[in-house]
Design goal:
heterodimer; A: 258 residues; alpha/beta; six-stranded mixed sheet; four-stranded antiparallel sheet; 10 helices; B: 907 residues; six-stranded mixed β-barrel
């Protein structure tokens, strides 16, 4: 397997490639100071190609969630830069960053993805409502039919199963046609069957709709749905793997423990 | 986004509904009282416009005597009527007399409820048709000895033409024959008040002074403008009179009613404002909790692209919706409340002019706006906190409460605390109105400070208070304490409503107790008598009551006390801006305006041991019809001392000059309330004006005989002074002629009788005697022997009350209040016997004592702390009344002494 020195290559490759939906350059995130200083991200440089499904793997505390939050504009870096497309989001003001999240980024969280007082359909169109835009009807129908919620669209989140809720969350992320979707342990709260459905669905969105997705997970089975896997440990990218399978990912992860 | 707001609202409907209740209550109180106030004010305006229908101008004295009940004026000479008739543009002139009276029906019961409803008016039947708005519907116009009754009263009391009816006037009850029934235009009574119309001559004699009118109404020639008419008249008016337009007169007449209603509505509106203020804390708390609960949802919104403004807007929008809905409900409820309050007032006997509710938009705008604004403002802080939530918290990071010791919070709390201190400090020594405002504002600031600074002290406080809980219940108590301490900011705002509620209740309780204590101690100092007998209506007591009580074997000495009001010229040094000029007076009196003062008439040779005036100079023995004793305050204000002259203006007699013969440390009654109340008892009382009648002509009744009744019973006899405790009593009586108005002090009927009980006598006998003399009206019960304990005492009084109330008309001479001195337990007998309905000192209007501690009230020396009194009343004048027709002091009889001003003197 090709696991040798991928990071410099990835960094060089992303530098001038127009097909990167997002990238981080020498991203640094430090919590605390002095003796209690924790380097959650210690100079991470990576890129996420357009139309690809990337999984970020790593043990707990490796910084994978922090990396995602920073690239998605939910959290700020201590140093380095993050680009969404060609936009350096580290220089954006709060208001512009909010707008960028709304218009160019989709999110799927592990839990509490939906506003409990809104119906499934209203949750799906929420980012567009916030922007004051009308959803593209045809695209909406396409997304909704892909999600396969049909008759449950007018139900509140509390009336939906966990799998259905996550499907609505993915549909919401897709509906605004963002440049990139970030998913944080999207299957973490689901049983394996519902999880597989969601992952299938996300994979489908990438292959059929050309969507770019970045997913943080610690589950090798989930990573197997991705086109590529990045491995983080101690705030650094330590490896990357194209077309990962569950076995290979598991093997790779076992090495961290040794 | 709006959908989100509405959905949010719906999902917290229950919690928000409870929140909204405070706003609903506040708004409805404010709307309700405003609507009620508007309605009643409009009603009075209309009523007075009706009363003065056809009146284009009013001529009256320009000498106004401020009293606590509005201004009185010196009467005007009847000859002015003839003089005005000759003026150009004058179509008709009529003299008017109007006095409150009391009607006694054929069964001997008083008609109406003069203490609660509108007063019953005694009017003169004007012979000038244009200026007489009464229309006879039965019978004929009144002649001497007969009267015309309004139709409503006649119907209600089932009285018809030819019936006999009693009229209580100052000198007693007079019997009249009803000559006719009349309506007041379209209205069945005198614009809401019962009325009896006497022939003009008799009205002048009995209700005013012969040859005088209270005012004169003028109808202008066709088409003349009221102002033009007044301008024309003004040039030719006699000295000491003035003319105003009929409209101005109506407006002025309605003024006191408007003021009263304003006070009433202000009082209730205050509750509305407090409810909104408390509501503010509740709303703040509710939204703080809602926001905390929704942190992740709000973070999610921020993550998927909601701006801070949108999050802020959604929370504020929710608050605004709550505010709008609650205020709207409150507005509707307020109208219902206004209707309900009016029913309540009606049910309480306070009849208000009937008219539809006045729904003016102004009544709604302020309360509704306030309701919405307070709701939104209260939600502002929680909304701001919501908008600051970091999107990353949607990932599950716990919301950490950082507000507990936030700097802004501490700054706000510190500023509020300092502001509260400063406002209270300044307000402490400010003049009353300003003090009220300042201390009120300080109170609000205190609540804000206590709430804002909660995090500073709540942790240790909760730990301290929770200690026993922990000790008793172990882990449960531990958890409860820790929960209270965990988020002190939230705990603080949660407890705010309770803090405010308990704070306000405490304030009111302390204020009531203080007022009660200051009245009690002042009364104890001054009234050294064993009993004080006061009437149950504002008409006062007949002088006969003092006589009858004095005649009892059990009584050592009893003396009548009389109150009236007089105007005092402002000292030449200029107006002192006395803010406590009685209601209705102008607080910015100029030179030449009169300041109100209370004049108390006494019998100086009998007052010893009954009331202690603390004479500091001169002697009360020198009181005659032309002399006065003056309180220290008043003396310094006027710059007079013994030997100087003072001039007082009386309603009946105009200006009178007196020589000061004594100085008094203070007035006998320190509390404004109490003084007012006593004074009210004699309000509108005619001076004892049956002067010159042979003594005892109709005065001495067989003991036990009815007191009420015989016409002309006003003459009082006066005995020579007794020595205290002298026995056997051999009443030596001599004619007594209560001063003519033309002479000296305008003295009114005895409104109180001070009784000195001889020692070693069975007090219960007094009760029996009084009861007998009063025709069972004033006393019941009594006769208990031995020292009762308090429980017995109370029980007995309850029983007595029932009997006392049923016993008879009771309108003139019911003994109202017992004042007991000393530790002699037997006194309770006397007190209770003479005072069937109430515990000693427990008069509800006075606020002193009350049922439970009533016995401690007056006369118990040593309880008067003598601390600084903030309300000071001064004895103005103690005057002795001269016999008719003479300026010379004689050994006369019904002396009159007087206290002073109900002024609140500013320091």
């Amino acid at each position: 397997m090709t696991t040798t020195d991928p990071a410099p290559d990835a960094g060089a490759a992303t530098q001038n490639t127009p097909t990167l939906a997002a990238r981080a350059e020498n991203a640094l995130k430090v919590y605390g100071s002095g003796d209690t200083e924790v380097r959650a991200l210690d100079g991470v440089t990576c890129g996420f190609e357009t139309g690809r499904f990337t999984a970020i793997m790593g043990p707990s505390g490796s910084g994978k969630s922090t990396l995602m939050h920073c690239v998605a504009g939910l959290d700020t870096l201590t140093g380095g830069a993050v680009f969404i497309g060609d936009t350096d989001i580290t220089t954006l003001r709060e208001r512009d960053l909010t707008q960028l999240r709304r218009d160019r980024i989709g999110f799927v969280f592990q839990a509490f993805n939906l506003v409990p007082t809104l119906t499934a359909a209203e949750n799906i169109t929420l980012p567009m409502d916030l922007a004051g835009r009308k959803p593209d009807k045809e695209w909406m129908d396409n997304v909704v039919s892909t999600v396969g919620l049909g008759n449950r669209l007018n139900h509140r989140p509390s009336e939906l199963s966990g799998g259905q809720q996550q499907r609505v969350a993915v549909a919401r992320a897709l509906a605004a046609r963002p440049d990139i979707i970030f998913a944080d342990e999207p299957t973490g709260n689901l049983d394996s069957r519902a999880g597989a459905e969601i992952l299938d669905f996300m994979r489908q969105a990438v292959t059929d709709l050309g969507q770019t997705i970045v997913m943080v997970t610690h589950d090798p089975m989930a990573a197997a749905y991705a086109n590529r896997a990045l491995f983080l440990a101690d705030g650094r990218i330590v490896d990357e793997m194209d077309d990962p399978t569950a076995e290979r990912v598991l093997d790779r992860l076992k090495q961290f423990g040794e | 986004m709006f959908t989100l707001t509405v959905r949010g609202l719906r999902s917290h409907l229950l919690r928000l509904g409870a929140t909204a209740l405070a706003v609903v209550l506040g708004v409805s109180f404010m709307v309700g009282t405003t609507v009620l106030g508007d309605t009643v004010k409009a009603g009075f305006d209309e009523a007075f416009a009706d009363v003065n229908l056809g009146v284009d101008a009013v001529v009256r004295s320009d000498r106004e005597i401020p009293t606590p009940f509005g201004a009185e004026r010196v009467r005007i000479d009847a000859t002015v009527v003839q003089q005005l008739s000759g003026e150009p543009n004058v179509a008709a002139v009529a003299g008017q007399v109007r006095r409150p009276i009391r009607l006694i029906d054929t069964a001997g019961e008083p008609i109406g409820n003069p203490n609660a409803g509108p007063p019953t008016f005694g009017l003169n039947w004007s012979e000038v048709p244009d200026l007489n708005n009464w229309d006879l519907v039965a019978g004929a116009a009144p002649t001497p000895g007969t009267l015309v009754l309004d139709r409503r009263t006649a119907t209600d009391a089932n009285i018809s033409v030819g019936d006999s009816i009693g009229v209580d006037i100052a000198s007693g009850t007079r019997q009249f024959t009803v000559s006719g029934i009349a309506t007041f235009g379209e209205i069945d009574n005198f614009a809401g008040a019962p009325a009896a119309l006497l022939s003009t001559a008799e009205a002048q004699e009995l209700l005013a002074e012969p040859g005088t009118f209270d005012w004169i109404t003028v109808a202008g020639a066709n088409g003349i403008d009221q102002a033009e008419l007044v301008a024309g008249l003004s040039g030719s008016l006699p000295d000491g009179t003035e003319a105003i337009t009929g409209e101005a007169f109506s407006d002025e007449s309605a003024g006191p009613f408007r003021d009263f209603i304003n006070q009433f509505t202000t009082f209730i509106t205050a509750f509305g404002v407090i409810a909104l203020f408390v509501g503010g804390f509740i709303i703040f708390n509710t939204f703080a909790v809602l926001v905390a609960q929704r942190m992740r949802e709000l973070a999610l919104l921020r993550a998927v692209g909601a701006s801070r403004g949108q999050v802020l807007g959604s929370v504020l929008g929710e608050a605004a919706l709550v505010g709008v809905v609650a205020s709207a409900i409150g507005a509707v409820a307020g109208v219902a409340l206004a209707a309900g309050l009016r029913q309540l007032l009606d049910a309480l006997g306070l009849e208000l002019p009937p008219r539809p509710l006045a729904l003016e938009s102004a009544a709604f705008i302020l309360p509704v706006t306030l309701g919405i604004v307070i709701t939104v403002l209260s939600a502002l802080l929680p909304a701001l906190r919501a908008s600051r939530v970091a999107p990353v918290e949607a990932m599950g990071a716990a919301a950490i409460d950082t507000s507990a010791r936030s700097t802004p919070r501490l700054v706000v709390g510190a500023i509020a605390a300092v502001g509260a201190g400063v406002m209270v400090a300044i307000g402490w020594s400010a003049e009353p109105t300003r003090a009220l405002q300042l201390i009120g504002a300080g109170l609000v600031a205190t609540f804000v400070a206590v709430t804002a600074l909660g995090p500073l002290y709540l942790r240790p406080l909760a730990g301290f208070i929770g200690a026993p809980l922990r000790a008793i219940t172990g882990i449960t108590g531990q958890l409860a304490t820790e929960n209270a301490r965990r988020n002190p900011a939230r705990t603080s705002s949660t407890t705010a409503a309770l803090t405010i509620g308990i704070g306000l209740v405490t304030v009111i309780a302390i204020a009531a107790a203080s007022a009660s204590a200051s009245v009690a101690s002042a009364t104890q100092r001054s009234f050294t008598s064993d009993l004080i007998v006061t009437p149950d209506s504002f008409l006062g007591l007949s002088p006969q009551v003092a006589e009858d009580i004095d005649a009892l074997d059990e009584v050592d000495v009893a003396t009548g006390l009389r109150f009236t009001f007089a105007g005092v010229d402002q000292p030449s040094i200029g107006p002192q801006g006395d803010p406590a000029v009685p209601d209705g007076g102008d607080p910015t009196l100029g030179l030449g305006d009169l300041r109100g003062a209370t004049v108390l008439g006494i019998q100086p040779d009998r007052i010893d041991g009954l009331v202690d005036f603390e004479v500091t100079s001169g002697s009360l023995d020198d009181l005659t019809g032309a002399t006065v004793a003056v309180s220290a305050d008043e003396a310094s204000k006027l710059g007079v001392g013994v030997g100087d002259q003072v001039t007082l203006s009386f309603q009946a007699t105009g200006e009178q000059s007196f020589t000061v013969v004594g100085g008094l440390r203070r007035e006998p009654v320190a509390s404004r309330w109490r003084l007012h109340h006593l004074a009210r008892d004699v309000r509108c009382q005619r001076a004892a004006r049956q002067q010159g009648r042979p003594a005892g002509a109709d005065r001495v009744r067989p003991r036990g005989g009815p007191h009420r009744g015989s016409p002309g019973s006003g003459t009082s006899g006066c005995r020579l002074p007794h020595r205290r405790g002298c026995r056997p009593r051999r009443p030596h009586r001599q004619p007594c002629r209560p001063g003519r108005p033309e002479r000296g002090v305008a003295v009114r009927l005895a409104c109180a009788v001070a009784v000195h009980r001889p020692h070693r006598r069975g007090e219960h006998a007094v009760a029996g005697g009084v009861r007998a003399n009063q025709g069972d009206r004033s006393a019941a019960g009594g006769g208990h022997q031995g020292p009762p304990d308090r429980g017995d005492d109370r029980a007995g009084s309850h029983g007595d009350r029932h009997r006392g109330h049923r016993a008879g008309p009771g309108h003139r001479a019911r003994v109202r209040r017992g004042v007991v001195r000393g530790a002699d337990t037997g006194r309770t007998h006397l007190q209770r016997a003479v005072h069937p309905g109430r515990q000693p000192g427990g008069h509800r209007d006075h606020g002193h004592g009350g049922r439970s501690d009533g016995r401690a009230v007056p006369g118990v020396a040593g309880q008067s702390s003598g601390g600084p009194r903030r309300h000071r009343h001064r004895m103005t004048a103690v005057a002795h009344q001269a016999p008719a027709g003479s300026q010379t002091p004689t050994g006369s009889s019904a002396p009159a002494r007087a206290t002073t001003s109900h002024h609140h003197q500013e320091q």
